[in-house]
Amino acid sequence: MLTQPRFVLAVPGLKVSVPFYRDKLGMDVEFEEGGWCFLSRDNFSLMLGECPDAIAPKALGDHSYFAYITVTDATALFEEFNSKLVEMMKPLTDEPWGMREFGIVSVDGHRIMFGEELDSNQDVSLNS
């Protein structure tokens, strides 16, 4: 059985990255020491490793897209992140594959998608 996933990201500096995940995305810092910071929000967990010499995520193109997180209320989360001026790579959109989703870009250039499963009774008027 696979249990809670943890995503591991190389970041150029924890002093810039940690405040983004904590203050903009509402994550809790669980541990920070020795060039590592572990953060979580609900069942979403990150391990940030300080790697100042790593290739910048913005230079990775499509490979900077590292996670698709299923959420219970994509609209509310989009509004929360938008109010905190989080950079969006994709606006909130109802997709034909049955997901209401949006994408963000981290302060380091990592991209994350968030999506809510739509059911046939749910309002799908975002694209109208």
UniProtKB/TrEMBL annotation:
It comes from the Bacteria. InterPro entries: Glyas_Bleomycin-R_OHBP_Dase, Glyas_Fos-R_dOase_dom, VOC_core. Pfam families: Glyoxalase. It comes from Undibacterium curvum. This is VOC family protein. Residues 1-117 form the VOC domain.
